[in-house]
Task: structure prediction
Amino acid sequence: MKSTYDLMKASGRRDEKLTVYSAIEGFLSRDLNPNTRRAFATDLKRFAVDYGNWQINELTKKELKAYLDGLVKRSGEPVAISTYNRHFGTLQNLFGWTASLGREAESDEFLSGIVRSPLSGLRRKKAPAALPRPLAPSDAATILSRAEPYRDKALFTLLYDSGVRIQEALNIDVEDLDLREGTVRIWGKGSRERVGFLSKRSAKLIERYLRDRGRVSTGALFVSRQYTEATGDRLSYAMAYRLFRKYSEGISYRGSPASMHQLRHSFGSERAGVIDALALRQLMGHRSLRTTLRYAEVNPAAAHEAFRRYEADRQRE
Result:
């Protein structure tokens, strides 16, 4: 069976170096997820029209910048920053791949000179930080009331009451818990460890769930229904996502279906201005305090109330 490189090379004329069109064909012929291939192909369609006959090693930062800056909507307006950055990422994937082929086959005339991406030196556009998207307390309560059995109710209550990320919750082991003290060890982004705190209802739900499992003391906390001691199957993100979609059916936020991450956003926004920002930062595992402070922007009433309490306390001194 011919390799991707052989197929790509065969698509170009032997007396030419690698063209953009041939590179795109080879890039898309790899073993990709169908949705990923479709997204890449859509983004590269216009690029192929503009530069398909160019040789890869003729492209420079100047051409790539002109192409990206020229991306416009049908109305003629510049595309959104998110769209610009998506196209940038697609081209980065394409040229990263061709550069790796060039390094692996430096003696091949067809690939000679392709050792660096023409995007080098260019950067994505900086998008304004999006505000958190909390659920209404009544919507969060509805989702938690629908969740069953105890595993699901404990998982989604943990997200809402403790503000942990979904993957952090799925990574928790039983030995990370201290139900008596109401704490849980969390492994966050970048393998950073922090201490999370359990609400009373979370602790009770987890304790009941573990009792149903036979009071296990080690291994994954949230496990699949196919769990056995031999396989120890941890509940997957994909299954948690499907479960949440079932429990949140009919609940939306500004026209979009509710998401698991919004339970964490709700934790942050409901507490912003109520508890110290540095403490909230620690609880949520944020690197930057600026990230934590965004929650006050979506809950100005809580921030105002905290200000009023501070003023009242100061006047009593």
Remarks:
- Strands lie at 177-178, 183-187, 193-197, 252-253, 256-257.
- The first strand starts at residue 177 and ends at 178.
- Residues 235 and 262 are 20 Å apart (CA to CA).
